[in-house]
Design brief:
By secondary structure, this protein is an alpha/beta fold. The protein is 37% helix and 22% strand. It is built from twelve helices and 16 strands.
Length: 380
């Protein structure tokens, strides 16, 4: 973006994703700009009067904010609203989704880094990928940087920033504290890429960003959402009461190594019976897509040992499974749902939806996009 002030957020930890309270005078303009952008993002084009009604801001404030955002190229005039109503027709304004672009990177598949150039609605413009394989450490970082540079070179409009969905424990500043597959420890991923590209770069845990994607692009509620990522490992992103939960050491949602059964298969962590040994991708591949009912029941029972206490303690309303959809079948979800219902109060299970993500295999890329929208424009 240009050197003008952007309605940037202050990070996602413990911060309401769509704040509604009044801001201090020093922050009000930035937050109000974000409110206008967020309103147009989710509601489509509106007149200035419609924006004022939706946001609760005065028409004078809306007029001033809209003028500034048009100048920045973030919203555009779309012509006169034509409706069968009396009075002077209003002029529509909307988000100018193609005036800027975002680079989104998905590192959740540790064999291949996927990248996408998208507009402000997350719609793909260009895609590229680079093999990672067994590359680790600085070499893995170099591969990611080159993928980012590939996509930057394809951009035909100014870039808002770069978002990276990374495995492992990631701080709000974008430092990867620990990512086993890449042998990254205390790696300031976002900072290093910012230095290399000159663009604002943001990184987050891939499961957390998938949860953010469900909220921003998938229409999910943030009241009690847990998104479970099933790949070689297993992780979860949690939105509760409008806040993305990350925990004291930013490891909230690391459910893969919770004990799901006594004994069981040996896990890569060295213990036995972890949830990962029954619900991660390798275990489900061994089970097969046409598994018999007793096998599905066994998986559901093991999963419920871990998931039922979480659902009850947090009063979850939405349990969403991401990838691979060909392995997470409706019969498997039914088995998990029945096992959870047998362990929690009816008031909990009656309100709990268990489903497959509508975003499919794109959720991590959309999560990386959502991270940039949130951090740079205040759109969630």
């Amino acid at each position: 973006m240009s050197g003008k002030e952007a309605p940037r957020s202050e990070g996602l930890v413990g911060v309401a994703l769509r704040p509604t309270g009044k801001a201090t005078p020093s922050r009000s303009r930035v937050l109000n700009k974000a409110l206008v952008l967020r309103t147009l993002f989710h509601n489509g084009p509106l007149t200035r009067a419609g924006l004022a009604r939706r946001t609760g801001l005065t028409r004078v404030s809306i007029s001033d904010l809209v003028a500034g955002l048009i100048e920045e190229g973030l919203i555009e005039e779309l012509g006169t609203l034509v409706k069968g109503r009396t009075g002077k027709p209003g002029n529509l304004v909307g988000l100018d989704i193609d005036r800027h672009a975002i680079v989104a990177i998905d590192l959740s598949n540790t064999e291949t880094a996927r990248g996408r150039l998208v507009n402000l609605k997350g719609e793909p413009l260009q895609e590229r990928s680079r093999a990672i394989g067994q590359v680790t450490g600085e070499a893995a970082l170099t591969t990611v940087q080159r993928l980012v540079e590939d996509l930057i070179a394809l951009a035909k409009t100014p870039l808002i920033g770069v978002g990276i969905a990374s495995p492992g424990v990631v701080t709000p500043e974008g430092t990867v504290e620990f990512a086993t597959d890449f042998a990254w420890q205390h790696l300031p991923l976002a900072q290093r890429l910012t230095q290399a590209t000159g663009l604002p770069c943001h990184a987050g845990n891939d499961a957390n960003l998938r949860a953010l994607a469900e909220f921003t692009f998938g229409g999910a509620s943030s009241d009690g959402l847990m998104v479970i990522t099933i790949e070689r490992g297993l992780g979860a992103g949690i939105l509760l009461d409008g806040v993305l939960l990350q925990g004291r050491s930013f490891a909230a949602g690391e459910i893969g190594h919770l004990s799901a059964m006594v004994g069981g298969e040996r896990c890569i962590c060295g213990r036995y019976g972890c949830l990962e040994t029954v619900l991660a991708k390798p275990a489900l591949q061994r089970l097969g897509p046409g598994a018999a009912a007793p096998s599905l029941t066994a998986v559901g029972e093991a999963a419920a040992v871990v998931l039922a206490p979480i659902a009850s303690a947090l009063n979850l309303t939405d349990l969403v499974f991401c990838d691979p959809s060909e392995l997470v079948t409706p019969p498997l979800l039914d088995a998990i749902g029945q096992a959870i219902a047998a362990r929690v109060l009816p008031a909990i299970s009656a309100d709990l939806s268990i489903r497959i993500s509508p975003l499919g295999g794109q959720s991590a890329l959309l999560g990386a996009t959502a991270l940039v929208l949130s951090e740079e424009l205040g759109i969630t």
